[in-house]
Structure to design on (711 residues):
């Protein structure tokens, strides 16, 4: 009886999650760097308006998978991707897909804060400018303000928009990078260990921000910190040696994972 | 319990061990020695730089002054145009006997008997033969001057100029000396009356080649150099930057690219005279371009400068952090936008430095120009890069072969001017870098 109810609860949870539609679907995704295979037939779906955390030990392929989602791997000559990834039912590796447009829909925030060595204002407006999102200065100003608001940076920088973005602190720089990504109105935001170069206070701010952004964006975040994955995500995927070990609700993942390897990794037995 | 305490003690209070001798003293001594070597190397370098500059400046500073003799010249109609033909035939003024005017003025000023031919010859030798063209130009410009008397400042002959600057050894016997005792006496007299004086040598900057040192200058050669620098800048900078961007950012990484890369590095080390031969056979013999023209020189120097610019630009592009590229690509910028909006501006200081170093190198280059006929005796300013011209370092090379004392100082003077150009170019590079860097 007790067993039954537990299974029923699980089923209910699954159904709850199942009602959230998939934003991106990865089917049999494999990645090769030259001869070396980095990802083995990964089937991982990203749900809309959900924070999906990718965890796993170093070199497990979680960043590689993240980078397939906006085709950043294209910039590496030896890299080859097989399988199928769709964004709203459109194959993003279809030859007819323009990678520029894809990256406007799937934005990215990197491990190390990398603002352009230009003013804060120019950092935020660069994306809208190249994508033709604003026609007038007023529209640009509007985008800058709303993006910086969303990134929680507006109050800190509104008086020095024309100072260099590299003069900000590390945490502010990372939030500037998030503002820059948000400015092109993407649907999905990929974050590659966005807090690994930040101190705990800046990390807390960025995590809070991720939480807020979830309402409007689909977020995929790679992290090395279990606690961070537990704090910010609703779904968690665990990678190991290029394989997807388990993908589950975050609550379940950290309390009662299906796979022994997940359990071991979360308990700190390897990785 | 006792076990534990004893183990804690043993880790905390370890018995005094004799430390292995790792030569701390030797290490510090080695460091001190190395510092001393470095300092010595720098001091030796500075010493030689000082010797070089001292030699050039001490020999050359006098080139910026030139002795002039101011004489009241009587533009006698009888000598210039005895038959009054200038109305009908203006060319008559071009061929008039102007040296006679100088002779008469000198004879009067020095009080010599006009019948004493050797003495008169000695006197007229003191004034540069360029006085003929100087007076002719005056008369042609304003024929109304004929019949009047005007004070004209004439260039002193090169040896007289040297003597006036104290550069001629007067202890040498008069027969072996270029400047005779009689001339020295006149010089003293002219100086006392104020007729002979040193003035700033503007001619050094404006005249062209001349066999008479007092009428020789770097003006024509500098214009030739300017033409070549413009050609190098206009061709080498865009070609070099485009080549570097393609090689660094777009070219597939394969054997062919590697081969090209190795060869560019080798080309930077090819002796410049080889580029001269290349220019001679391709631009002059094959393409039929004019000999000793600045355009050919500019093309040869472009070929020579390209490897320098390409290597500097590629290094600068490589030095741009990959995170900037990722940032731009991640925002949906195309590769081209990434490069031209972000990478190239960041690399610009390096590109500019490379370009200006390349230009400075090209400005001082002589060997390839010898082969394409730019060792030329060019008197007139080249009207266009297609006209015969010469270059600053070539002018220096030609003057260095001359024997007269006055050419020796001009050689050093021209070297000083060339060095000033180079210093100005390098300062320009620094200023440009500063400006570019301030924008970020």
């Amino acid at each position: 009886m007790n067993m039954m109810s537990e299974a029923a609860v699980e089923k209910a949870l699954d159904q709850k999650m199942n009602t959230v539609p998939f934003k991106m679907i990865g089917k049999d995704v494999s990645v090769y760097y030259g001869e070396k295979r980095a990802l083995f037939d990964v089937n991982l779906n990203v749900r809309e308006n959900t924070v999906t955390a990718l965890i796993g030990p170093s070199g497990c392929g979680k960043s590689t998978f993240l980078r397939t989602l906006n085709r950043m791997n294209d910039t590496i000559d030896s890299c080859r991707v097989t399988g199928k990834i769709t964004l709203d039912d459109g194959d993003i590796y279809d030859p007819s897909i323009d990678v520029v447009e894809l990256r406007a829909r799937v934005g990215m925030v990197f491990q190390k804060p990398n603002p352009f060595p230009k003013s804060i204002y120019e950092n935020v407006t660069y994306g809208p400018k190249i994508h033709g999102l604003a026609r007038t200065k007023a529209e640009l100003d509007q985008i800058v303000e709303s993006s910086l608001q969303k990134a929680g940076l507006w109050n800190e920088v509104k008086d020095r928009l024309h100072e260099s973005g590299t003069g900000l602190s590390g945490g502010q720089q990372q939030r500037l990078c998030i503002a820059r990504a948000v400015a092109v109105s993407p649907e999905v935001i990929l974050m590659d260990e966005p807090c690994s170069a930040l101190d705990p206070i800046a990390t807390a701010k960025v995590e809070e921000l991720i939480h807020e952004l979830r309402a409007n964006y689909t977020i995929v975040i790679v992290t090395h910190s279990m606690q961070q994955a537990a704090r910010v995500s609703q779904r968690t995927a665990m990678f190991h040696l290029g394989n997807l070990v388990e993908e589950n609700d975050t609550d379940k993942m950290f309390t009662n994972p299906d796979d022994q390897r997940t359990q071991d990794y979360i308990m700190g037995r390897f990785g | 319990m006792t076990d534990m305490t004893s183990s804690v003690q043993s880790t905390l209070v370890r018995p005094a061990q004799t430390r292995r001798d790792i030569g701390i003293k030797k290490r510090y001594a080695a460091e001190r020695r190395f510092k001393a070597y470095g300092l010595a190397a720098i001091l030796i370098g500075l010493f030689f730089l000082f010797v070089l500059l001292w030699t050039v400046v001490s020999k050359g500073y006098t080139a910026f002054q030139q002795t002039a003799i101011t004489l009241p010249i009587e533009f006698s109609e009888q000598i210039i145009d005895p038959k009054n033909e200038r109305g009908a035939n203006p060319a008559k003024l071009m061929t008039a006997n102007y040296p006679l005017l100088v002779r008469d003025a000198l004879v009067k000023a020095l009080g010599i008997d006009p019948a004493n031919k050797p003495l008169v010859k000695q006197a007229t030798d003191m004034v540069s033969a360029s006085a003929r063209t100087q007076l002719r130009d005056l008369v042609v410009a304003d024929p109304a001057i004929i019949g009047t008397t005007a004070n004209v400042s004439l260039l002193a002959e090169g040896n007289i100029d040297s003597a006036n600057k104290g550069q001629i050894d007067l202890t040498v016997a008069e027969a072996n000396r270029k400047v005779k005792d009689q001339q020295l006496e006149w010089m003293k007299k002219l100086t006392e009356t104020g007729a002979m004086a040193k003035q700033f040598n503007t001619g050094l900057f404006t005249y062209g080649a001349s066999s008479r040192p007092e009428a020789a200058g770097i003006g024509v050669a500098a214009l030739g150099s300017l033409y070549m620098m413009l050609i190098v800048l206009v061709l080498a900078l865009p070609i070099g930057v485009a080549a570097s961007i393609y090689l660094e950012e777009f070219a597939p990484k394969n054997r062919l690219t590697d081969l090209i890369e190795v060869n560019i590095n080798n080309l930077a080390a090819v002796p410049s005279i080889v580029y001269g031969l290349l220019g001679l056979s391709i631009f002059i013999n094959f393409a039929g371009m004019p000999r000793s023209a600045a355009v050919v020189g500019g093309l040869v120097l472009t070929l020579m400068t390209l490897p320098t610019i390409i290597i500097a630009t590629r290094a600068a592009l490589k030095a741009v952090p990959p995170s900037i590229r990722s940032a731009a690509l991640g925002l949906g910028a195309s590769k081209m936008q990434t490069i031209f909006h972000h990478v190239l501006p960041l690399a610009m200081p390096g590109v500019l430095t490379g370009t200006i170093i390349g230009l400075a190198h090209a400005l001082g280059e002589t060997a390839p120009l010898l082969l394409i006929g730019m060792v030329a005796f060019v008197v007139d300013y080249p009207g266009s890069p297609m006209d015969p011209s010469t270059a600053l370092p070539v002018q220096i090379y030609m003057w260095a072969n001359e024997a007269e004392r006055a050419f020796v100082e001009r050689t050093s003077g021209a070297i000083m001017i060339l060095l000033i150009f180079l210093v100005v170019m390098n300062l320009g590079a620094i200023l440009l870098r500063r400006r570019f860097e301030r924008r970020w």
User: Anything to note?
Assistant: Residues 1-8 of chain B have pLDDT under 50 and may be disordered.
